């Protein structure tokens, strides 16, 4: 035992305890360096990152978190519904450790079956006949296939380019452009409009493509007094010129959307218009004897705005389904761990991805759906404007 004097105070130090503390400090520092070294030695994609932590936390619902907090302070559980039950912590621990959800067999099959990850996602609102067997498919063609020039049915294009005239809207945004429409997969085309192929994975064209549907949507919104910016940039050409792969389409379109936001403070809503790769029987509906290309709303979970984006998509689905029963296939939430999981929707809380039809639909059917969506959205927009005044 030894003693130390410091400003009148005497401390007695046990030499054995001091040695133990010293050893523990040294071992602790060594352990810290070893763990840090192991984490930084992982190959890219396997290390511990904020996205990994976020993915782990996504397995814990907000209700389960409140139950956990309630174990320390029961006051928190008072905010839960009466029928709320505590989570099964053994199942939760198993899911965190293995990334397997006992209640969702896709979490196991998705790791084993090639291409099964295409069906990864949560059905938030299921439209008519929508289930996990007909989830949207995002085809990723080789660049040479997407960039190939194909012959189109020009007479169909000219016929479809007409827009029915209606009386001018009695309400307008006063020259302000409040809606921005973009097409991250701008070359997605439709087999009935192409003469030289009937292969779904070849349904791509430089001009006769989904941008025509987005353009029609913009014109229909303008007819109803809503100012619109429609961007028809050839994303495929941008990718080709930069030597980028198809998976970087959203990186290219992100630059365009960010520039639009910086140049126009009036923009409120952002629609990324696509077409699905599912066949005709899934993407077509007949309403009052008229065929429409069915719509589908997709929201990415990998951004802070996703709950607001999800709310917008759900409201539009419900309005569309009420006026045009069966037109909307529903609302899909793509997880943060997916191929994208964001779709540039972090740039605005009023941003959604809209699938219009599929590879077997015609432009005419897509135009009908664009008009239907424009009618529903314009009602939604002007009703919200009345509330805000």
From TrEMBL:
Pfam families: SpoIIP. SUPFAM superfamilies: Zn-dependent exopeptidases (SSF53187). Keywords: Membrane, Transmembrane, Transmembrane helix. The chain crosses the membrane at residues 21-42. Gene3D superfamilies: Zn-dependent exopeptidases (3.40.630.40). InterPro entries: Spore_II_P. This is Stage II sporulation protein P.
